[in-house]
Specification:
This protein is an alpha/beta fold and about 180 residues long. It contains seven helices and eight strands. The protein has a single domain, classed as Alpha/Beta hydrolase fold, catalytic domain (Rossmann fold). It is globular and about 45 Å long.
């Protein structure tokens, strides 16, 4: 089972989630992309409840979802692909505090609070294993790809020139992702 974890303000119905779902289902690989709460503890609790239902789970996470995937992969000793991950969301998401945070899928608004930033600290991961692959694009306008090198020793990284935070051309990495997760 592959669980895709979307980013802040995202949804299990976003572009990447749908693209991954179509790809993995066409290869008869079980895939879930839940729409998670913006409240970090609820998001992690939901994911842990899903994980309990499956024998072998692997993760793909993007942005904040990459942060969650790092935590869960370490906790459950499994593989993860993290795409332009937010490594310090408790710092980076301070700018979203207040009533103005927006879900990019359905345009609903939610109140992002300081307590949510504190919750994020509970899931910080300071080590990664060789079971984690980082997919990074230098053109990410929101996050600095160099944070991965600063935070982790000898991470496995596929680094590309250009791109953006949404990770342009993710479809071109589907075979590599499948190989990494299942080899």
């Amino acid at each position: 089972m592959i669980i895709y974890i979307h980013g802040f303000g995202g949804s299990g119905e976003g572009y990447k989630a749908k693209a991954f779902r179509n790809y993995f289902q066409s290869h008869n690989i079980s895939f879930l992309a839940p729409s998670l709460s913006y409240i970090p503890e609820l998001a992690i609790n939901t994911l842990e409840e899903l994980i309990a239902n499956f024998k072998d789970v692997k993760f793909i996470g993007s942005s904040l979802g990459g942060y969650y995937a790092l935590y869960l992969a370490r906790k459950f000793c499994t593989k993860a692909i993290v795409i332009n991950p937010g490594l310090y969301p408790y710092e980076r998401l301070k700018s979203a505090l207040g009533y103005y945070a927006c879900n990019f899928y359905d345009e609903s608004h939610f109140e992002w609070k300081k307590e949510h930033l504190e919750m994020l600290k509970l899931f910080d991961c300071h080590q990664v294993s060789n079971q984690t692959l980082f997919l990074l694009q230098k053109g990410d306008e929101l996050l600095d790809y160099q944070d991965v090198y600063k935070k982790f020793q000898n991470p496995q990284i596929l680094l590309e020139e250009g791109g953006s935070h949404s990770y342009e051309g993710i479809e071109s990495k589907f075979e590599l992702i499948k190989s990494f997760l299942f080899d």
